[in-house]
Amino acid sequence: MKFRLLSIIVLLVVTLSANSQSHRSRSRAAVPVDTVPELVRQYQDSLLLYKAKLDSVEKENSLLGARMDPRMYKLFVPLTFYKGISHEKFDLAGKKMTPTERELDNVLLNTYLNRPDLVAMTETQLDIANQVEAPVARENTQLETIISQKEVQKIAEPELTPVSIVVKKPNFWKFSADTYFQLLQNYVSTNWYKGGESNYSMMSSVTLQANYNNKQKVKWENKLELKLGLQTSRDDTVHSLKTSEDLIRYTGKLGIQASHRWYYTFQAIAATQFMKRYSSNSHNLTADFFAPVTLNMSLGMDYNVEWFKKRLTGSIHLGPFAYSMKYVNREYLAQRNGIEADHKVKNDYGSLVTIDLEWKIIDNLKWKTHIYGYTTYERTEFISENTFTFQFNKYISTNIFVYPRFDDSTARDDHHGYWQYKEYMSMGFSYSF
């Protein structure tokens, strides 16, 4: 009886103390700075208080020769409504309980019925508080697991090996060449009803190009053309071998880019021939190396042609300021080349247009043209050199040459006027790189 009375007194004291502590904690306006719910914090504080009270009660009970049951903590924590207590009281079967458990349930049930205002929380709230804490713990565990896995799976550092770095200077030069060597044989019997003569002919050509373009508005183009054609002639009893084509020509252009396709350009063209040329059945010399040699310099603009999906390419030069010089190293050839008697040089000024185009008509057929037009407003010289090439394979081709020419500084012909024509065809070896 004394133990029961002592327990009830202790219960009331502790309950009132805990209740006052709970009311004080509710009245606080400060918000917890950590993530621990207020409900759990109240239980933690009450358990600490319970431990202190339990120590003092243990000392008192030891003097009375009794021990306090540890399950008495329910009397010292904030008063909680446990569903199991009311369930056990109304259960017909009943549950076997120790006297201490039964007495504890009676005290709590009596408090529920008489002082419900002292109940601080329910068992359901405790379960929810427990669920709040659990995910945090699991997240921390997962985070620690991921961190530990990342620490284990460290990326192996690659082994450093010495590397030799080679820096190449950009090459702004582009070189190309186009060559061909072709033969033609023509046989005519002496009694052929239309007449004519048998002959053999040879045509060779080499075109070399060295072009510089620094991709920063400066380009320098160089082209050297060498052509030589020979043919036999039975009608010329003095010269069994005559030239059908003889040309040495250099074309140089220095340009500064003005826009995408236009360049301010200085152009120079120099031309002469390889061999001597004679009149038919005569020893009269009509032309020789440096007899004549022509030099034409002009200042103007160039337009780069890239038409028909780049199948037609080339350049067009417009030179409103041009200088032309013609020189012969033999004075007796002066008048034949439009130079005054007893002079070797002729100078004049005018305007110049040159067009160089290459059109790839089909895969095996291409057309090249070089158009030269110069005028001093007193005389006009126009040349159109057209070459049609049919390529059978990489090494075999046939060429057709058509060269019309106009020059009103020469003597007028009764049939053709100031126009001159030359045409021939050849077939043979060709190679480009």
* Count of DSSP strands: 16
Largest sheet: 12 strands, antiparallel, barrel
SSE class: alpha+beta
What sequence of helices (H) and strands (E) makes up the elements? Answer: HHEHHEHEEEEEEEEEEEEEE
- Strand composition percent: 35-45%
Strands of the widest sheet, in order across it, are 3-4-5-6-7-10-11-12-13-14-15-16
Helix content: 10-25%
Rg (CA only): 58 Å
Number of helices: 5
Mean pLDDT: 78
Uncertain segments of ≥5 residues (pLDDT<50)?
Answer: 25-33, 132-139
Q: Identify the overall geometry.
A: rod-shaped
Tell me about this structure.
By secondary structure, the chain is α+β, with helices and mostly antiparallel strands. It contains 5 helices and 16 strands. The strands form 3 sheets. Strands 3-4-5-6-7-10-11-12-13-14-15-16 form a 12-stranded antiparallel β-barrel. β14 and β15 form a beta hairpin. The N and C termini lie far apart (124 Å). About 4% of the residues have low confidence.
Name a few traits of the molecule.
433 residues; alpha+beta; twelve-stranded antiparallel barrel; two-stranded parallel ribbon; 16 strands
Short description:
The protein is built from five helices and 16 strands.
Layout of helices and strands, plus pairs?
Blueprint: H1 2-27, H2 38-64, E1 80-81, H3 83-89, H4 99-114, E2 121-122, H5 123-152, E3 173-186, E4 199-213, E5 218-232, E6 241-257, E7 262-272, E8 277-278, E9 285-287, E10 293-307, E11 312-327, E12 345-362, E13 365-375, E14 380-391, E15 396-407, E16 419-432
Parallel strand pairs: 1-2
Antiparallel strand pairs: 3-4, 3-16, 4-5, 5-6, 6-7, 7-10, 8-9, 10-11, 11-12, 12-13, 13-14, 14-15, 15-16
